[in-house]
Amino acid sequence: MGNLSKKTGQGKTPQQYRDSSAFAWYGVVGMIILLSLISLCGCSHKTYVITEYDGDREIRWYSTGK
Prior knowledge:
- This protein is of the alpha+beta class.
- The protein has one domain.
- Helix content is 44%, strand content 24%.
- It is built from 1 helix and 2 strands; from the N terminus they run αββ.
- It has a two-stranded antiparallel sheet.
- A hairpin with a 2-residue loop joins strand 1 and strand 2.
- The mean pLDDT is 80.
């Protein structure tokens, strides 16, 4: 017969397995929140369009709001 006292789940108790699983999910949720904040705050530049007319010709100037 095999060793009956051997634990399953990589040698962890069921409580340790649940804690590790919860910690991994907190990490995934944290990464999603971090990526969302970076994408929302990192793309805050605006482009302004200045339109001028030179006779019958339309000239557009594009400027970033730096």
